[in-house]
Amino acid sequence: MFKNCLIIGVCSFSLFSAKAFAQIKSSTEHNGYYVDIAYTLVDSKDTSSFNMGTWKPTLARITAGKEVAENLAVEGIITQGINSDSVTYDSNDYKLKLNSGYGIAVRPFMKATDEIELYGRVGWLQYKQTISVNSTSYDDTFNLYFWSLGLAYKITDNLSAVFDYTKMQQKEKTSADTSLTAIGFRYRF
After folding, report:
1. Is the same domain home to 159 and 140?
2. Which of 7, 101, 130, 151 could cysteine-pair with 97, CB 3.0–4.6 Å?
3. In this predicted model, what pLDDT tens digit does every residue of 163-188 receive, in sequence order?
4. What is the CATH number for 116?
5. How many distinct structural domains can be found in the chain?
6. pLDDT tens digits, one per residue of 58-97
7. pTM to 2 decimals?
8. What residues contact 163, with CB distance under 8 A and at least 6 apart?
9. DSSP class of 171
């Protein structure tokens, strides 16, 4: 009888210890949610027959994401223009201002090392822009598909530096070749 009580006691202690260890371990792991904040340089080249030049405005990008499977996350994106840019064509200044935007994306990723994560991103973005010529302004809304390639460097368990390159493709036929280069930080919860 003593032997049975001892076995039950050891098994119970082992079970509760394993459960307690699992709770401690899971409390140090991330819950899969994260936020990226990035400063983004936009490079938008006119590819029409006018060949007006290249605008280089900037914007801020905030991305909230959730890892939904191993090596796969879904994201919501918000953008806000910071600085506009102008080009001169035919003695007129054409000023491009990116306003606000929003979108969704899927982000597959993989660890290259303990500190470096490589990722891609495929998604859709809608943004508003204003083009001003002399004293006249034109507002427009664009729907774009995009893909990105990026790298995240782990600074601490919760904080990483991120860098990515994004290529845009408008749903409608367009005369612009647009890419974005972003640098920022990701915080994991």
Report:
1. yes
2. 130
3. 999 999 887 667 889 999 999 999 99
4. 2.40.160.20
5. 2
6. 999 999 999 999 999 999 999 999 999 999 999 999 999 9
7. 0.81
8. 150, 151, 152, 182, 183
9. S
